[in-house]
Amino acid sequence: MLGHMQGVWKWFILYILFLVALESMALYFPMFLQGVTEIISEGVINYREGLVYQNQVINDILVQGALVFGFIVLMLIIHIVCEFFVAIFSFRLQKNMRRTLFNKFQRVSSETVEEYGYSKVLPTVWNDTSWTRRYARRLANALVFAPLVVFGSIFMMFRLSTTYSLIALAAVPFILVFFWWRMRKMSKIIPEVVEVFDDYFTNIKEGITGARDIRILGKAEERSEEFGKMVDVQVSQGIYTDRSINLSISFHAILFTIVTVIIILYGVHFNMEVAHDLVILNTILQYVVRMQNGSHTLFAWLVEDAPRYRVSMERANRVMALPERDDSGGITVLPTLAEPRMEFRNITQTHSNGQRSLSDVSISLPFNTRVAIVGGAGSGKNKIPKLLLRKEDVESGVIAVGGIDITSINRMYLRRAVFSYCDQSPDFVPGTIRDNIRVLAPYATDADIMGAFDDLGANDFVARFGGRFLDYEMGERSTLSMGAKNLVNIVRCILKPASFYIFNQCFSHVKPEYINRLMQRLKRERKTCLFITYAQEICRACNNVYVLKNGRVGGMGSHRELLATNADYNKFYAAFGASIINEADMEGTTAPEPQLTNDGEEIGTRTLEAEARMATIVDEGGGV
Amino acid sequence: MARKRLSREDRYLIRVLGLFGEFRWRILMIIGIGIVGIVMFSFTPTFTRNIFNNLEESFDLNISPTMRFIYTQLVIFTVLALLNEVFQIICSFAIIRYENRAKHELVVKIKRKLDVVPVSFLDQFATGDLTRRVANLTGMLTRTVLMIIYRAARTVFFYITTAIAMFQISWILALVVIASLPLCIITAKLVSSRTQRYFNNNNQVIINSFSYMDKKVSLHNFYRTHGIDGAELEYEAHNENETRANIAEEVALGFNTIYITFIQNFMFLLVTVVFGILFVNGTLPEFGALPAFIVFSNRFLANAVIVTETTNLLQSLGPRAKKVFEILDYPDTMTEREHIDIERIGEIAFRNVSIERGGEKLLSNVSFRIPPGSSVAIVGAAGSGKGKIVEVLAKLEQYTGGQVAIDGVNLDEIKSDSYYPNFGIAFGLPFIFRGTVAENLLYGIRRTLPENVMQVTRRLGSHDFIAQLPNGYNTELSSDTTKLSVSQKQALNVARMVLKNPDLFVFNQALSSSDPVTEKDVIESIRKMNPRQTKIFVTHRLSSIENCDMIIFMAGGRAVEMGTHAELMKRKKRYYSAYTSG
Question: Would you give the end-to-end CA distance of chain B in angstroms?
Answer without folding.
Answer: 72
